[in-house]
Specification:
Jelly Rolls; mainly beta; three-stranded antiparallel beta sheet; five-stranded antiparallel beta sheet; globular
Length: 127
């Protein structure tokens, strides 16, 4: 499972020395894996206390960036705890779910997905 945290990355000074940047994915690092793809979606979602995202898969490279809350991410049967500032990579076709294990705070995530070249329309409601 690929989970990266800004807590484990040293910032680099970018943009003519004006801002620190914490790279979770280095420039061009995923070029080969996503070649010919396209930005499928970008959204924010919430998992309430005691809630869980239904296990599902998509033909996309999907990324969750945890903004708040904590929980257990499961990708193809492998479990890992996630918390704010973690970036989770979910490969195309991987069965995945996210369960809120916190006692008082929903999990809030920013999500984006890169579609795989040649993939048809995806129904996210029933997946």
């Amino acid at each position: 499972m690929d989970v990266r945290s800004t807590e484990a990355v040293s910032p680099e000074i970018e943009h003519n020395g004006t801002v620190p940047v914490w790279y979770l994915i280095r420039p061009r690092e995923m070029r080969k894996a996503t070649e010919g793809g396209y930005l499928e979606l970008a959204n924010e979602f919430e998992v309430p206390v005691g809630g869980e995202v239904f296990p599902h898969s998509h033909p996309t490279h999907e990324f969750y960036y945890v903004l708040s809350g904590s929980g257990t991410m499961v990708i193809d049967g492998e479990e890992r705890q996630v918390s704010p500032r973690d970036l989770v990579y979910i490969p195309p076709g991987a069965l995945h779910s996210l369960k809120n294990t916190g006692a008082s705070e929903p999990i809030l995530c920013f999500c984006f997905a890169v579609g795989v070249k040649g993939t048809g329309k995806i129904n996210y409601t029933s997946h």
